[in-house]
Specification:
Elements lengths: L12 E4 L13 H17 L7 H9 L2 H7 L14 E5 L7 H11 L3 E6 L5 H14 L11 E5 L5 H10 L2 E5 L2 H8 L7 E4 L3 E6 L7 H12 L10 E7 L3 H15 L8 H18 L2 E4 L2 E4 L6 E3 L2 E5 L5 H6 L5 E7 L11 E7 L13 E4 L9 E2 L2 E2 H6 L1
Parallel strand pairs: 2-3, 2-5, 3-4, 5-6, 7-8, 7-14, 8-13, 12-13, 14-15
Antiparallel strand pairs: 1-4, 9-10, 11-12, 16-17
Helix pairs in contact: 1-2, 8-9
Length: 392
């Protein structure tokens, strides 16, 4: 049971309220919970509005029955008499569906879960919550219903975070570095998993005979969702031994593909792209490469491709990529070796499409995936094995 002070009740909006009568006893068997989660996947697939959101379709596909059969082989948390753990998830505002992956994985381990969603969440988050709320009232969702609660409150009300932190056995924080620092200071002894700010990049090695349309579609699958603000959204392309003509053909195909892709970029993002480029050039001394030569960027030129923009620079640093806010701006650098990739502890994902076998660069990064797979979730995320963490 969750007990929050009555004085705070007016500050809390419960979107899915846990059963106040439910006790912390052993959860339903793994197979029953797995069936309920797979049922939610099927429920999402059938909902016409949900199918309008690619990120929700991706979530539904990930939790389909066949995939659950694969990932639940790792679960060691379904002992008949296992005491249910309690997990408090704090969701980010800029990536609408990522919290649901951790919540459902935790539920598969039989844990009780409370999720705090941001008041700045997007349309996909609110739709997903509404659909989950409806599903949990159905017979198919009955084994999942005792395990999930969703609430919303202003982050300024730290007393609520404090009480939920006392309630939980594990805290999962998705958010920026500043938010994680602030939350970590609340009941600091609380065991927690954090997913802080990261940046990601793409490495492309394309010949003039490459299938530019295929590579353009794959790249857009990584960069367009979440308006390029997910940690695994590439902020830059490293052109590995790729000539200018091939790069031009790639961007031409990107422009053509964008004509048939739905996205959430608006005019404000286009303005932000220009402002951000000037800020990065001024703050980090980027040298911008242009067709007329190169110059130190006091005012950088930008090339527009539909809602996106791109700009070639002489050299990218980890500092520049860490400061990059997304919003559809793609930085580019020509490289002769993957050792020129700006690796650091903040580099999460390297997406690649190369002519030969991929060779990892020497440096820190979390994972490497083919282009087009950067946003695909995995049980080991950002170096954290979530099934192991939730199942201990």
């Amino acid at each position: 049971m969750i007990h929050l002070a009555d004085s705070l009740s007016s500050e809390i909006n419960w979107h899915i309220k846990p059963d106040s009568q439910a006790q912390d006893h052993s959860a339903a068997p793994l197979d029953a919970i797995k069936t309920a989660v797979a049922g939610f996947s099927a429920y999402l697939f059938k909902h016409p509005t949900a199918r309008e959101f690619p990120e929700i379709v991706a979530l539904a596909f990930w939790f389909r029955q066949a995939h659950l059969d694969q990932i639940t082989v790792e679960l060691k948390c379904h002992q008949i008499h296992r005491q249910v753990k309690r997990v408090f998830h704090i969701a980010p505002a800029n990536v609408d569906t990522v919290f649901m992956y951790s919540v459902l994985l935790s539920a598969l381990c039989g844990n009780k879960n409370v999720v705090r969603v941001s008041q700045r969440s997007g349309d996909a988050t609110w739709l997903l919550i509404a659909l989950l709320r409806n599903y949990l009232t159905l017979a198919e969702g009955s084994d999942l219903a005792p395990l999930i609660g969703v609430l919303e409150y202003d982050a300024l009300h730290q007393q609520i975070t404090e009480q939920l932190s006392h309630w939980c056995d594990l805290r999962v924080i998705w958010g920026g570095d500043n938010a994680i620092t602030a939350i970590s200071g609340i009941v600091p002894q609380t065991p927690q998993i954090c997913f802080p700010d990261r940046y990601s990049v793409t490495v492309l090695e394309l010949s003039r005979e490459a299938d530019f349309a295929k590579h353009a579609r794959a790249f857009l699958a990584d960069v367009v969702p979440f308006t390029q603000q997910a940690c695994s959204s590439p902020k830059a392309i490293y052109w590995l031994n790729t000539d200018v003509e091939s790069q031009t053909q790639f961007w031409l195909q990107v422009g053509l593909a964008l004509e048939s892709i739905s996205h959430k970029f608006e005019m404000s993002h286009k303005v932000e792209q220009h402002i951000q480029l000037q800020k990065l050039a001024a703050s980090y001394g980027m040298t911008l490469w242009q067709h007329t030569g190169n110059k130190h960027g006091s005012f950088a030129r930008i090339q527009n491709v539909g809602p996106l923009s791109h700009c070639k620079v002489k050299s990218l640093t980890a500092g520049v990529l860490e400061a990059h806010d997304g919003n559809g701006l793609v930085l580019e650098q020509d490289i002769a070796s993957v050792e020129e990739v700006a690796c650091s502890s903040k580099l999460q994902t390297i997406g690649y499409a190369v002519a030969r076998d991929w060779q990892d660069p020497n440096g820190q990064f979390k994972r490497v995936v083919p282009v087009g797979k950067a946003l695909e979730f995995a049980p080991v995320w950002d170096g954290v094995n979530l099934i192991q963490a939730f199942g201990q």
